[in-house]
Design goal:
Strand order of the largest sheet: 1-2-7-4
Shape: elongated
Number of helices: 5
Radius of gyration: 20 Å
Order of helices and strands: EEEEEEEHHHHH
Number of strands: 7
């Protein structure tokens, strides 16, 4: 494991601001890749941290699959700007093994290369997507996820960008007889959810 240690000292009854930036190759995590930052050191934390804000900026072509902060399930997530994500924890006390764990994938969330569409599994056809599933996607990724429903059924894209993107998948085949009547109930619900979520982010980013 490659580590970048940094000593930080906290003055009593004062706010301490820490700005950490480093570059490193990603490590492996199962079938994906990961970036981690160790929070707990075993000696520095005494009592709870009143407020911990974490900002994650994704400028890469990778997809953030999930973010975990220690064993805490109480983090408040917010998509602050396109590819900029904020996480807030209050009254949080890290233990020695706690870390910020960012799991990334280099394939789209709608198509796992091993168990995805080529194996007959398309998540947007099989279950309703949650905001947890969508929360770390950029606007471009959201657009691709939404249009994957159309691509899955062979829609012929007018957009050159989407046409080129989905043509890179071996499973995509244009169907000249395509109609939206082929969508099942999950696909209809997910398209509505995705469009609503996408539009809400555009409004937030423009305000």
């Amino acid at each position: 494991m490659l580590t970048f240690p940094k000593n930080i000292y906290f003055e009593s009854n004062k706010s301490t601001f820490i700005d950490i930036e480093y570059s490193s190759t990603y490590g492996g995590s199962g079938f994906g890749i990961a970036a981690t930052y160790l929070l707990g050191t075993g000696r520095t934390w005494n009592n709870e941290i009143g407020k911990l804000e974490i900002y994650i900026i994704n400028k890469s072509d990778l997809w953030i699959n999930n973010v975990e902060i220690g064993n805490s399930n109480s983090a408040i997530y917010q998509n602050d700007n396109d590819g900029h994500f904020a996480l807030l924890l209050e009254d949080f006390e890290p233990i020695i093994t706690d870390q910020i764990f960012i799991k990334l994938i280099d394939y789209p969330k709608f198509d796992d290369p091993m168990w995805g569409i080529k194996s007959g599994n398309f998540p947007l056809s099989e279950k309703k997507v949650s905001e947890n599933w969508l929360r770390f996607l950029t606007l471009d990724q959201l657009r691709k996820v939404r249009n994957s429903v159309f691509a899955f059924h062979g829609y012929g894209f007018k957009s050159e960008y989407l046409k080129d993107y989905f043509s890179s998948f071996k499973w995509y085949e244009k169907d000249s007889d395509f109609t939206e009547s082929v969508f099942n109930n999950f696909e209809k619900m997910n398209l509505e959810k995705l469009l609503e979520y996408e539009e809400s982010l555009k409004i937030r980013f423009d305000s």
